[in-house]
Amino acid sequence: MAKYSDPVCKLCRREGEKLFLKGERCLTDKCAFSRREYAPGVHGRSEQFRHRRESDFARQLRAKQKARRVYGVLERQFRRYYVESLKRRGLTGLNLLQVLESRLDNVIYRLGFAQSRAQARQLVNHGHFLVNGRRTTVPSLLVKVGDKIQVREGSRGRDYFKQLPSSIKQDVPLWLQRDLTTLSAAILRLPERSEIDGNLEEQLIVEYYSR
Predict the structure, then answer these.
(1) Is the dihedral of CA 83, 70, 176, 154 positive or negative?
(2) What are the tens digits of pLDDT across the range 13-31?
(3) Helix or strand or coil: residue 149?
(4) Average of pLDDT values for 166-193?
(5) Structural domain span for residue 3
(6) Do the Cβ atoms of 94 and 205 come closer than 8 Å?
């Protein structure tokens, strides 16, 4: 399985904003973006690079790259999600974001069971979660409305999951239902646009792939 293995802080610097790819570390002084708020590379600090005029294609590309990096998806898989969203009824851009939100690793992150999507992917890879009673190690699994997710019985004795109920700070989205007592959750519906990151520009992504 292909994955991005370079420093993720470079991705935030390239997009010019925090993507919170490292969870709580992004809120501390250790965050690389806070110390170097310029794009990586030899031209990152140059005024010409910072204030250059972007073409329509550049804006579309940046919107696509940003969405890919937020959800931790490589190009080939991202394009497959776009093709799938074309086949669904409704707005293609919203369909694409709903597909990305339906990834198991993202759902684990949204539930607060992980501080970042990267950590959620690792937890899923290690087989700590059950989906509809079956153990899965596939972070890209697309969950559906009505699916049940829970921490595996054999994993609940680990210190991480013992401390999880008291350490979770974020509220659960309305399209999910969470039970901290049993460390389980259910998919109630697909998320609405207002419940998804407002900084993502899905229309520019659609324009990019529609060229």
Answers:
(1) positive
(2) 666 666 656 566 555 665 5
(3) strand
(4) 94
(5) 1-52
(6) no
Q: Are 45 and 51 in contact (CB under 8 A)?
A: no
Same domain, 96 and 113: no
Q: Is 154 exposed, middle or buried (0-12, 13-18, 19+ CB in 10 A)?
A: exposed
Give CA torsion, residues 70, 74, 77, 78, to 10 deg.
40
Give the domain CATH number at 130: 3.10.290.10
Same domain, 109 and 130: yes
**For residue 33, what is the domain's CATH number?**
1.10.1050.10
Using 50, 70 and 90 to split pLDDT, how confident is the model at 10?
A: low
Please state, in angstroms and rounded to a whole number, the distance separating the CA atoms of residues 144 and 200. Answer: 22
Residues for the chain: how many in total? 211
**Token pair recorded at residue 192:** 């609405």
